[in-house]
UniProtKB/TrEMBL annotation:
Residues 161-186, 371-425 are annotated as: Disordered. It comes from Rhizophagus irregularis. Residues 172-186, 380-390 have a biased composition (Basic and acidic residues). Residues 398-409 have a biased composition (Low complexity). This is Uncharacterized protein.
DNA sequence: GTTAGTCTGTCAGGGGCCGG
DNA sequence: CCGGCCCCTGACAGACTAAC
């Protein structure tokens, strides 16, 4: 009998073990393409129990759709009935909010809030992770409730769990402090010199690459999601009545910042690229390419949904040293702030001065002095003995902005006037830093 | 294999509150 | 006023899953 057997006809050799399980399963329960969806769905849980993960389910789904010699292919409905979409099974926060809003029952709000709260899943012990996550999900629950139209007052009354919130806040504060204690280093690939060189060599007549995108993000300390919306403008007040956001002596601003949804207030521009015109050119170059579909937005898909996986993967791949931390899109913003503040600070900047510059580069509000510290990345170069400077009363601060004339060795350029704007900015910052002390 | 969409855990930081 | 502290939301990264 060892004859013929022309088995290697096609790629049916791939008899995955899950496919075998499926065929046995179908046989045992006498299921086929003739079965109704109702019949099939009765057996869904049992079959699902045999399939350990989504890969297995994928194999099975494909097999169902494909059919065999003995068995014809299942329709889409039948397939869905037998191996239902797992994503519909999750009782997500969003789904809760939707249902609860519909029921209009305050107790439903309350119960679900508690259910989303910390439960001590294992041994009744609530760890930090669970606590913080619980608080986050409760917050999310409130947000979705409001989104679906639940009553504001009910939300505030029945969807707030102050114990959990407080505990979560405490944990997060501790984490922040720990993080600040040991900041990461600047990745080799994004040191100032490397980024600066790449930026200078950019040819805007070409199509931008992901690397160009990354460098521009660094250059402008952007949030990844800001790439398509940020704009650099030049503003000069033409009257004695400038808008409230106008800062005397500054003419370059950014608009389209992500976090200001209500009042889009322009924020001062501070970039490691000292020529604002060039910065703007590079930014619009990137944006035009995205609009034209030649370059992906780092965060959004064409349908407006979030998907930063391709860009994040690219950024991650740029890690050169084993001992470096992972590079993420968000890290580029912090790196950019550091580069910008270093570039614009004078030869002997005080930490306060750098913080001030950082805040401007990051386009924060200037309320919180300590905010910029979050971004103080460790840098071997600037790390030095903490000379306990008498930083208080030292009035005679030499003009820190001495930076302007040198470093300007850019080829050509009649654009000096623009950089003068930057320089006057620096002067003001330096003064502010002094006054604050 | 690659891409897209959704969910959760985590971080950043705007804003409110309160004592001085 | 104002600076510090706390709350809580919005944005991010990664895990998952299905679709292509």
């Amino acid at each position: 009998m060892s004859t013929a057997e022309p088995t290697q006809k096609t790629r049916k050799a791939k008899t995955n073990k899950f496919v075998l399980i499926l065929e046995q399963f179908l046989e045992r329960y006498n299921l086929s393409a003739e079965s109704s969806p109702e019949q099939l769905s009765e057996h869904a849980p049992e079959l699902n129990a045999l399939l350990p993960d989504w890969k297995a389910r994928k194999c099975v789904k494909e097999a169902l759709a494909r059919g065999t010699e003995k068995r014809s292919a299942f329709s889409k409905e039948q397939k869905e009935a037998l191996v239902p979409d797992q994503r519909n099974m999750i009782y997500s926060v969003r789904k809760r909010a939707q249902e609860v809003t519909k029921s209009e029952d305050k107790w439903d709000i309350f119960i679900n809030t508690l259910d989303l709260g910390p439960k001590g899943s294992k041994d009744g012990v609530i760890d930090d992770k669970e606590m913080v996550a619980s608080s986050s999900n409760q917050s999310r629950f409130r947000k979705y409730l409001a989104e679906y139209g639940a009553d504001r007052e009910l939300i505030d009354r029945y969807a707030k769990d102050s114990k959990t919130t407080t505990a979560s806040n405490k944990i997060q504060q501790e984490r922040t402090e720990k993080r600040l204690a040991n900041p990461g280093r600047t990745p080799e690939h994004f040191t100032f010199e490397k980024v600066h060189r790449r930026l200078q060599n950019i040819d805007t007549s070409k199509i931008p690459s992901m690397q160009d995108l990354a460098d521009v993000i660094v250059m402008l300390s952007m949030r990844p999601a800001e790439v398509s919306s940020l704009q650099i403008i030049n503003y000069k007040p033409d009257s004695e009545d400038p808008p409230a956001w106008y800062k005397a002596g500054y003419s370059w601003y950014c608009t389209g910042c992500r976090k200001q949804r209500d009042k889009p207030m322009p924020m001062r521009l501070l970039s490691m690229e000292k020529d604002p015109e060039r910065a703007r050119e590079l930014l619009t170059w990137i944006q035009d390419a995205i609009k034209a579909g030649k370059l992906r937005d780092p965060v959004y898909t064409e349908t407006g949904k979030r998907n930063n996986v391709p860009f994040a993967k690219f950024i991650k791949s740029l890690k050169t040293n084993q001992d470096e931390d992972e590079i993420t899109p968000e890290l580029l913003r912090k790196i950019g702030a550091k580069h910008a503040s270093m570039v614009h600070a004078g030869p002997n900047p005080t930490p306060q001065h750098l913080d001030n510059l950082s805040e401007i580069a990051l386009r924060h509000k200037i309320n919180r002095l300590d905010a910029g510290k979050n971004y103080a990345l460790g840098d071997p170069k600037s790390k030095k003995e903490p000379k306990s400077e008498p930083e208080t009363g030292d009035g005679p601060n030499p003009q820190t902005q001495a930076s302007s004339p040198a470093s300007q060795s850019r080829n050509n350029d009649p654009k000096k006037s623009q950089t003068m704007d930057m320089d006057s900015m620096l002067a003001e910052i330096a003064m502010l830093a002094e006054i604050r002390k």
